[in-house]
Amino acid sequence: MNLHALFYSTEHPLYLDSPPPTNFGEAEREFLARYTKVSPDELVAHLISIRDQARPYCPTLCIASFGFCKSQLACHPSYPQVLAGLKDEKESRKLLDLGCCLGQHLRKLVDDGVPSEQLYACDIEPDLIFIGFDLFKDGNTFKGHFSDADVFEERHRRGWLDRLDGTMNYVCANLFLDTHSWDDQIRICVRIVKLLEAKPGSMVLGRQLGRSPAQKIEYGCVDNYIWSHDHKSFKEMWDVVGEKTGTFWDVWTDFEEVEAGSDYLIFTVTRKEEIGADSRPPSGEYCNNSLHHGSYLSRSKQFGKKLLARLHPSKGTKAG
C-alpha cells in the first residue's frame, strides 16, 4: 500500500487495533507533559482519550497513529526563521494555520515563546478545534484565534478569512493542499496570496504527500481526484498562481523519503520583490475572487458561541 492510500486508510492495523502512542520521541512527551500539565503517568491515557474523541471527525491514520502529538511545523527547515519572526516584538507578525486539526502547531509556537495573540487557525471541522482545547487544557490561557472558516467560502459573503486579508506574514499548510485537485490547489494558493501581507518575505510553508513523477490520484474518500506534486509541478503551480495574482515567488522544495515513489514534499514559498510595477498585472480571475465550493453559511458567530460554551459553560449559556 503506497503512502497516499495508507494515510487515508481505515483498514490499516494502526487504525483498527488502536495501540497506545509509540511514534513520537522524548521531546514530544516532554512538550505535551509541560504544556498540558498532565502527569507523565497519566499522559498516555489522556492521549488515547483524545485520539478516540477525534477519530469520528477525522478518520485518517494521522489521528489513529497520534500524529497530532508532534508538530510537523516545528520540524520544518524554515521553522527557526518563522519562530524568530513571530518573536520579534517590533514587528508583531502573524501566522495562520490552514486545516489546523487539533491546533498542535500553534501550541508548539506558544511553548517556544510566541504570544498566542499573534496566532490564527481554521478547520472546517469545528469539533477538532474543540477537542484541541481538551488535549492541551488551555481554554483559560490560549488567546489565539480559531474559526471553522472554509477557504472556499463564497467571496460575496464577508467571512472570517476576509477580515484577515493582507495581514498574515506566514501561512502554514501542512497536509492541506495535497487533499485537493490541481485546480483547487491553485484556487487555494490564490486565496493564500490575498491573506498574506503584500510585501517581500511573506511566506507559505508546509509538508504534504508527494510523488515523483507528479500525478493525479483517484480516491473514493475525496471528491474526484487529488494532485500529488514533485519539485517541478509544485513550482509550476506557483508560477500559475503568480500569473493570476501579479506576484513573484521563490519556491523551495525537498523530499523526505518514506517509501519508493511516495514521499513527503516539504516546501517554503516566499514572496519576492516585484520586477516592475506593471510587469505582471493580476488576471481577472484573481480580481473577481469567485472561489465557490458549495454553499457557505456565515458560521463565525455560531462557532464562537459553541467554543465559549465548551470552554466556559456558564458564560456560554449567557451568550445565547
Q: Specify the biggest β-sheet.
A: 7 strands, mixed
How far do the termini sit from each other?
Answer: 49 Å
Computed over alpha carbons, the radius of gyration is: 19 Å
Measured by DSSP, the beta-strand proportion falls in 15-25%
User: What overall geometry do the principal axes of the alpha carbons give?
Assistant: globular
Question: Count of DSSP E strands?
Answer: 9
Decide which structural class fits the backbone: alpha/beta
Q: Report the uncertain regions.
A: 1-8, 284-299
Q: Please tally the helical runs, counting DSSP H or I stretches of 4 or more residues.
A: 13
As laid out across the biggest beta sheet, the strand order is 3-2-1-4-5-9-8
H/E series, N to C?
Answer: HHHHHHEHEHEEHEEEHEEHHH
| Subunit organisation of the chains | single chain
**Helix fraction bin:** 25-40%
The overall pLDDT average reads 82
Describe this structure in words.
The protein is of the alpha/beta class. It contains 13 helices and nine strands. The protein has a seven-stranded mixed sheet with strand order 3-2-1-4-5-9-8. The N and C termini lie far apart (49 Å). Residues 1-8 and 284-299 have low confidence and may be disordered.
Blueprint of the fold:
Layout: H1 3-7, H2 13-17, H3 26-36, H4 40-54, H5 61-64, H6 79-87, E1 95-98, H7 104-111, E2 119-122, H8 126-136, E3 145-147, E4 170-172, H9 182-195, E5 203-210, E6 215-218, E7 225-228, H10 231-245, E8 249-259, E9 262-271, H11 284-288, H12 300-311, H13 313-318
Parallel strand pairs: 1-2, 1-4, 2-3, 4-5
Antiparallel strand pairs: 5-9, 6-7, 8-9
Helix pairs in contact: 4-8, 9-10
